[in-house]
Amino acid sequence: MIKVTLIGAGNVAQHLISTFLTATDIEIVQVYSRNPTTIIPEIDSKKIISNFSDLKEADVYIIAISDDAIASVSSQLPFENRLVVHTSGAAPLDSLNGKNRKGVFYPLQTFTKGKPVNFKVIPMCLETSIPEDYPILEKVATAISDNVHAINSHQRKALHVAAVFVNNFTNYLYQLGNEICIENHVPFDILKPLILETAEKLLTLSPKEAQTGPAKRNDVSTIEAHESFLSNENQSTIYKILTQSIQNHGKKL
Amino acid sequence: MIKVTLIGAGNVAQHLISTFLTATDIEIVQVYSRNPTTIIPEIDSKKIISNFSDLKEADVYIIAISDDAIASVSSQLPFENRLVVHTSGAAPLDSLNGKNRKGVFYPLQTFTKGKPVNFKVIPMCLETSIPEDYPILEKVATAISDNVHAINSHQRKALHVAAVFVNNFTNYLYQLGNEICIENHVPFDILKPLILETAEKLLTLSPKEAQTGPAKRNDVSTIEAHESFLSNENQSTIYKILTQSIQNHGKKL
Ligand SMILES: NC(=O)c1ccc[n+]([C@@H]2O[C@H](COP(=O)([O-])OP(=O)(O)OC[C@H]3O[C@@H](n4cnc5c(N)ncnc54)[C@H](OP(=O)(O)O)[C@@H]3O)[C@@H](O)[C@H]2O)c1
Ligand SMILES: NC(=O)c1ccc[n+]([C@@H]2O[C@H](COP(=O)([O-])OP(=O)(O)OC[C@H]3O[C@@H](n4cnc5c(N)ncnc54)[C@H](OP(=O)(O)O)[C@@H]3O)[C@@H](O)[C@H]2O)c1
């Protein structure tokens, strides 16, 4: 049984709490929330604290709070030489205060409030400042996920940038697609099966193999027809840049 | 029972054949393939023809061939005043020769050779040049799909452009994500659950609601860190343009 304390009560903390409660090898010692009225479902209210001075001994302290508060909160912890980890893809290991043993416990997924996730398939990206701590963090991660990876700070940075492309930027393209639908009186719902299939294709094909479309085929007449169809400047700029980039891809720009 | 003849033996034609064979209200009269050695699974070989002069009477002729061959092939059909439709999102209704009644039977999905699809959920976008033909095409579509829409040429053009954003461009972002992973020695597989979740989120949230990330939050320090991480010019150009576009979105550019 590994004893875990959570610091934070946001999106990630709440999802971690729900899944830790179902894991047989994990005991949640306490949950810290600076705002004691935050609703933390299913947790015994005696375990919810809002003063760092009330923190009890645990094997791991997981700080799941906004990136820019990690340094300050980790410096306020009233103990030393314990294992303290954050859950961020973007924050460096060294954003954690040096008085404790440091680590990262980064679930590479996008969480939505109220939407349950299956942690078993979520990649858990782990790093510890000293090798002796890795097995502890690994035990916590394998208690909830079958998809656990040792990822150093450089690799995590790369993953975080790549995640911006495949998640934030992709979702923005969905937004532009939605806009085009609204402007032309077609329901965006019609595109949803295509969106799902585009993502699911990656389970059988590499993105390179899966690439299709006018830019890839260098189908100039379709590209011209699309460009003259798009009257919105933002949409048409993005269309041109991505089309050119696909056409030139592999070549030196 | 509606009698359907398919002209073409490519990706779309083969998927349509497989699904028509399972539909109780559809009889496949013939399949035309210019190349008689093309493998067309499950079809009685006597029904496979490679001369237009062998074409028998049918209620609908579905031309599922490359966009730029639709005009020429439809002009070679040795009959008049029958219902002839194409399956393209990009080709206009008028690419079909005027000697027959025209229509469009556009399955809005990306098909992969050998990967079965569930037609029941695929949006079928229908158009006919005369209203009397619409019910015939609708019967064919509802025999295979629960997701049938009357879509005029202008709307189809909009959907096709929007599909480029949510399918071709999105897949290209997956390709850039994959590249970043390869360059930094992390397996691209780690990003796949995130990619799937990003698509699946649209079932509960609008893309606008689902938008997250440093650009959306205007988190300048993360954006700068990402920009200095990306040494590849193409990746960094796309990163900048999409980040700016998300930041300015809604504002006048
Ligand atoms: N969201 C995701 O999809 C995702 C995925 C992977 C990793 N992460 C990482 O997980 C961490 C938490 O993200 P999140 O999405 O859960 O954020 P969130 O939902 O915005 O929650 C942030 C939490 O941090 C607390 N907090 C902020 N500043 C604080 C301070 N100075 N002192 C104490 N508590 C403070 C907030 O408390 P109040 O409620 O009182 O404001 C809240 O509980 C971040 O490092 C993030 O990068 C997020
Ligand atoms: N692929 C998709 O995901 C998708 C989705 C929706 C709609 N569509 C539309 O469906 C249509 C077919 O696309 P596809 O993906 O099935 O194409 P495909 O797999 O490339 O197959 C093209 C077919 O057209 C035939 N063909 C080409 N030129 C011809 C000519 N001059 N005379 C006779 N046959 C000719 C080819 O015959 P050979 O085999 O002998 O070359 C082949 O059977 C297109 O209009 C496309 O826009 C495609």
UniProtKB/TrEMBL annotation, chains A, B:
Q: Which residues form the signal peptide?
A: none
Q: Which Gene3D superfamilies match?
A: NAD(P)-binding Rossmann-like Domain, ProC-like, C-terminal domain
Q: Where would I find the Pyrroline-5-carboxylate reductase catalytic N-terminal domain in this sequence?
A: 3-86
What SUPFAM superfamilies would the database entry show?
6-phosphogluconate dehydrogenase C-terminal domain-like, NAD(P)-binding Rossmann-fold domains
Q: Name one Pfam family in it.
A: F420_oxidored
Q: Which InterPro entries match?
A: 6-PGluconate_DH-like_C_sf (IPR008927), DUF2520 (IPR018931), NAD(P)-bd_dom_sf (IPR036291), P5C_Rdtase_cat_N (IPR028939), TM1727-like_C_sf (IPR037108)
Q: In which domain of life is the source organism classified?
A: Bacteria
Residue ranges constituting the DUF2520 domain according to the UniProt record: 122-246
What name does the UniProt record give this protein? Answer: Rossmann-like and DUF2520 domain-containing protein
> What species was this sequence derived from?
Flavobacterium polysaccharolyticum
Highest lineage ranks of the organism? Answer: Bacteria, Pseudomonadati, Bacteroidota, Flavobacteriia, Flavobacteriales
